[in-house]
Specification:
The chain is mostly helical. The chain has helices at 2-26, 32-39, 48-55, 59-71, 93-114, 119-141, and strands at 46-47, 75-79, 87-91. The longest helix has 25 residues, at 2-26.
Length: 143
Amino acid sequence: HTTMNISEHLSDISLNYFSLVRKLASKFDLTLSQTLVLLYIPFDGITVSDLSDKLGIDISTMTRNIQRIEKKGLINRAPNLSDKRSINLQLSKRGKQISQLLNEQISDHLSSVFQKYNFEQIEDIRNMLESLGWELYLYRKNL
């Protein structure tokens, strides 16, 4: 089955990618879950529910991760100005620095992996991953 082969490859890619992120995050005393939360908070902030939805993590798990990251001084909570019932999360100055460092280190490591491919191949991979990521997101939203 082609689909089974693709799902196996996607699982392998996910495992290897998350292993890389986990290894880099450990230098900052962060778990993989905490790191994903940190990496997916945009610089202008995001609500807890939107971040929970984006990462596919239930609110109670998200809340625990947020509390642990907040204790480390990496994020701040603020009232959501457009909806007083929700909380907006923003990266602290230190959180922005660590997020940026992690993104740079991930990019550096991926660049090393992609050195064996030419520019056209890299563009094809990027385009396919972008399309596949979007399709998976849309599919997941409709589950």
